[in-house]
Design goal:
Layout: H1 16-22, H2 25-28, H3 32-48, H4 54-72, H5 85-97, H6 110-146, E1 151-156, E2 159-165, H7 166-191, E3 193-194, H8 210-216, E4 221-222, H9 226-231, H10 234-260, E5 268-269, H11 288-312, H12 326-349, E6 351-352, H13 354-362, H14 368-377, H15 382-399, H16 408-414, H17 422-426, H18 428-431, H19 443-457
The structure holds arginine.
The site of arginine has 10 residues, from helix 6.
Length: 466
């Protein structure tokens, strides 16, 4: 007979390669803490419901506590032949306290057990990740305050379009992250479901108390269908969807930091602590953190798509395929936890080249829309004003000058509505100040926006786990 915990109906040992191939232990060791926590709640409930005796429950709990300490101290004897973290802990328990340890798995299957562990683990990490997203939002908001007076070109098609406040530009990222946090609320709600009691798939005949376990473990709700409980990984997918959007946002921010720190833009200098050098070119200072952050987006999208593909053809209920949910989940969590503080640091320490940003606005046609708006205010339909200013831009480009270099006489040649007050609208640094609409880039509007951002920071979407 095979030595395995499930070895009763096997006459031969498992092939070594099969053992290695099917084991999840190398990666699901991470669930050890949750596995013990879930078992402790389960065993307490079994005794409460008189499925096992109080004495048995005490022995099992004491054994589990010892195991918890062994794991914490790094002294737990992990054994690959035992397949996964669940079997490792159960076997160790039996080793420690004898056959009564075998009662732990009463009214439970690894199928609902692994689901429980995953729910618990993700709930905890959601809270941690949200704190890090908040941290980055705070840095963006602080930077917005710091650079309140700084103006730079806003772009469309990566062509200079209209001047904006740097604060306004940075706050755009603040709101992306706010939506990411809002999405976390949905992820959290669907992760906050308690699967235990589903057994292998059909529930259990033992008179257990699922509500008690849920309450004990801090779950907001229970799965209402045992078959769904053991085969659902939607909550992991939703986390991947959230993570993919967040990574896409970080990647766009990366791209701007990379562009801005190039000599061509020359808008910022990233801090020495957040850049690396070249092994051959002594002058180089490379934005590798931003580049790697941009690249890591690929692996997060990859994990999302991999799990969607794993799940798409699976019949109910548990299939071993589901074991493939873990590495991508852990890697996504690690990636986010590594990257978010790095981005906070980059934003906090970057040096803004106010002058260069200002020059880029001044030496450009970023005030063209405002010139057209000027004519509109004097009664001209916008479409005509657009055409008039377009012709003025062509003229300036031919002469190698800018709109603000034109004198009134030259302007009048393009349209009779131009008068002396035109100088005011042409000051490129001031045109941003005119866009006072709610959500616009005028300093007063940005000030309002910062107040809203301050309030938004106070909303927390996921709950802290004990
Ligand atoms: N290691 C397995 C997983 O991660 C645990 C559940 C195993 N269940 C089973 N019936 N083989 O999915």
């Amino acid at each position: 007979m095979s030595e395995k915990l499930w070895g009763g109906r096997f006459q031969k040992d498992t092939d070594k390669l099969v053992e290695k191939f099917t084991a999840s232990l190398p990666f699901d060791q991470r669930l050890a803490e949750e596995d013990v926590k879930g078992s402790l709640a389960h065993v307490e409930m079994l005794a409460r419901c008189s499925v096992i005796s109080a004495e048995e429950a005490e022995k099992i709990s004491a054994g589990l506590e010892e195991i918890r300490k062994e794991i914490e101290r790094g002294e737990f004897p992990f054994d690959l032949a035992l397949e996964d973290i669940h079997m490792n802990i159960e076997q160790r328990l039996i080793e420690k306290i004898g056959s009564v340890g075998g009662k732990l798995h009463t009214a439970r299957s690894r199928n609902d057990q692994v689901a429980l562990d995953l729910h618990l683990y993700l709930k905890r990490e959601l809270y941690n990740i949200e704190q890090l997203v908040l941290g980055l939002q705070e840095q963006l908001l602080k930077a917005a305050h710091r650079y309140k007076g700084v103006v730079l070109p806003g772009y469309t098609h990566l062509q200079r379009a209209q001047p904006v406040l740097l604060a306004h530009h940075l706050l755009a990222y603040f709101w992306m992250l706010q939506r990411d946090r809002e999405r976390m609320q949905g992820v959290f709600a669907r992760t906050d479901l308690m699967p235990l009691g589903a057994g292998a798939l059909a529930g259990t005949g033992f008179p257990i108390d699922r509500e008690y376990v849920a309450e004990k473990l801090g779950f907001g709700a229970l799965y209402e269908n045992s078959m769904d409980a053991v085969s659902d990984r939607d909550f992991v997918l939703e986390f991947f969807a959230f993570a993919s959007l967040l990574m896409m946002h970080l990647s766009r921010l990366s791209e701007e930091l990379i562009l801005w720190s190039s000599s061509e833009f020359d808008f910022i200098e990233l801090d020495d602590a957040y850049t690396t050098g070249s092994s051959i070119m002594p002058q180089k200072k490379n934005p590798d953190v931003a580049e790697l952050g941009r690249a890591k987006t690929g692996r997060v999208y990859g994990h999302f798509f991999a799990l969607l593909t794993v799940l798409k053809g699976l019949p109910l209920t548990y299939n071993r395929d589901l074991q493939e949910d873990k590495e991508g989940l852990f890697d996504t969590i690690d990636t986010l936890k590594m990257l978010l503080p790095l981005y906070s640091g980059m934003i906090e320490t970057m040096r803004v080249k106010e002058k260069q940003m200002g020059n880029a606005v001044r030496k450009d046609f970023a005030n063209a829309t405002d010139l057209a708006d000027y004519l509109v205010r004097k009664g001209l339909p916008f479409r005509e004003a657009h055409r008039v200013v377009g012709a003025m831009v062509v003229y300036c480009q031919e002469q190698g000058i800018l709109l603000q270099d034109l004198d009134l006489e030259q302007c009048e040649r393009f349209h009779a509505l131009f008068t002396e007050d035109i100088k005011e609208v042409l000051d490129p640094l001031r045109v941003a100040h005119a866009r006072k609409v709610r959500g616009g880039t005028a300093p007063c509007a940005v000030e309002e926006q910062m107040k809203k951002a301050e309030q938004a920071l106070r909303l927390i979407m996921s709950k802290r786990e004990e």
